[in-house]
Amino acid sequence: MTIDTLADAIEVRVLWNALTNLVNEQGAGLQRVAFSPVVREAGDLACALFDRDARMIAQAVTGTPGHTNSLAAAARSILEAYPPAGLQPGDALVVNDPYMTAGQLLDITVLTPIWRNGAIIAYVGSTIHHTDVGGYGIGAGARDVFEEGIWIPVCKLQIAGQRNEDVWRFILSNVRTPDLVTGDLHAQLASAELAGRRLNRIFDDHELDDLDEISQEIMTRSEEAVRESIRQLPSGTTEASSELDLVDGTRITIRAKVTIDAEQGAIEVDYTGSSPASSFGINVARNYTFSYTAFALRSVLNPDIPNNAGSLLPISIVTDPGSILDAQSPSACTARHVVGMFLPMPLLQALAGLVPERVMAEGAAAVWTVQVQGSQADGTPFTTSMFNYAGGMGARAGKPGLNTTAYPTGVAAVPVEVIEQTAPVRFLRKALRAGSGGVGAQPGGMGQTIEFTVDTGDRWLLNAVASRLAVPPQGVNGGGAGAGGQFTVNGEAVTTQRKMELEPGDVVAMHLPGGGGYGAPNDADA
Questions:
Q1: Quick count: other Cβ atoms within 10 Å of Cβ 237?
Q2: What's the pLDDT tens digit per position in 256-293?
Q3: Other C-beta atoms within 10 Å of 505: how many?
Q4: What is the pLDDT of residues 393-422, one digit of tens each?
Q5: How many CB atoms are closer than 10 A to CB 36?
Q6: CA distance linking residue 19 with residue 58, whole number of Å
Q7: For residue 360, what is the DSSP state?
C-alpha cells in the first residue's frame, strides 16, 4: 500500500486497529473457553496474526514475551516442516517441539491458515501452556527432554474442519489430564476459527484480496521506528554479568555484551561465555533466549512501538550452541523460564551506564512455579499447575518497584479460590513480605509469602522451581539488594530441584525475593 495521501494514511491506521482488535478478540476468546486455570485465569498464552510469508503482523495484548516472540520465530519453521502446498481449508497444524517453538513440551502451538477465494491469505497462531503432556511435569528434575513428556512433531491436528483422530489419540493417550488437554486444544482451534471469520469480514469491509501491502507497510514502519530509537543511543559496547542461584546450590552466570550500532540502528547481544548446559531441565532454547532479550531491549528503547516481525529485526543475539542459552536436543528444558526470565537482569545492568533513567534494578525475575499431583479423597487423580507467584520488581529511576509483580513475564497467578475449588490444596497464608524490597532513593518492590498444604489421605508429589535465594536481586546506581528467597517444607529448607514426595498435612512455605533499590538511599530511607 503506497501512502500518497492523508486518506491512505488514515486507511492504514484503521486497518491496523482492526488487525490488533482481531488478535485481541482471538486471545480473549481463547481464555474464555479454555478448560485449565493456567490459561483461563493466568493468561499463560500467546495469540498472533501472520502474513502469507509467516511474518508476525500483530499480537494479542494478553500473553507472555516467551510465548509471543517464540511464536513469531516459529511460524516459518512450522511451515517449512509442513509446506502450505499440503494444506486445505479447515486444516490446523500442531507442534510442541521445544527447540522450534517456545522451549518446553508443555507449550503446544496451533497454527491455522486463513483462506479467501481458494487461497491462503494469512495464518493465525496460538501457543498455550497445557496442564500436562505426560512425562516428568513442570519441574526441573528430568534428565533429558524425552523424560519430560510427549514430543509432538508438526502434524495436522485438524483436517478439512474435522479432528485428525489418529493425532488426537496419540496425544491424549500420553497425558494425565485428557479432559483439560482436549478442552484447551479445542479452545485453540475455536479461537483460530473466530480470527479467520473476523479477518474475512475486514477484507469485505475494506475490499481487500490480500494482506501483502498493509503487512509490508506495518513491518516497514515498525522496523524504522525501532531503528530510530536505537540511533538516539551512543554507539559502542557495554557488558555486564549476573548470577542466578537455585535451591540445590546451583549457580548460573549470564554474561551479556551489548553492542549498539547507532548508524545502522541495530543492537546485538552476545551471550558468549555464559554458563554451559545444565544437567537439570533449565536449559533455554534459542527462540526463548531471543524472546526475552528482545522484550527487555524493547522495554528500554520504545515500548509503544508495536511488537511484530519488523520491530524485532534490528535486534540480534549471539549464543554458544549447546550452552544453557542455546539448548540442543536432548537437553531437558521444561523449567527454562527460570533462566530465560532472568536474561533482562544483566541486560539492564549493562545499559545502566548508557541510559540510567530508562533501566530498573534487578527484580525477582522468574516466577516461582509449583505443580501438585496426587489423589482426591475418592481416589481420582488430580494435577494442578501452576502457581505463577511473583516476587518484587526492581525499582525504577522515578518510581519504586512494584510489589509481587513479575518482570519480564506477563502471567498472572491463578487465584487461591480457583485452586482450592479444583484440587485438595488448602492455603494457610498469602501475604506481602514486609521489608523484602531493597532500600534506595526508590525502594524495590516487596515479595510475598505463601503457605499451603494438601488435604489428602495419600502421599502427594510436589514439583517446584524456586530461584534467587542465596544471591538476591541487586540494586542499581547505589540502591540496596532485595531480600533473597526462602523455600521450606515443614520449616526445613528445600535443597533439591527434583520432584518430592510429601505426606498429608505437610506444609510448604515460599518466601519470594524482593526487588533491588534504585539510587543511593537518603537518611530517611536508611
A1: 11
A2: 999 999 999 999 999 999 999 999 999 999 999 999 99
A3: 11
A4: 999 999 999 999 989 988 888 889 989 998
A5: 27
A6: 7
A7: B
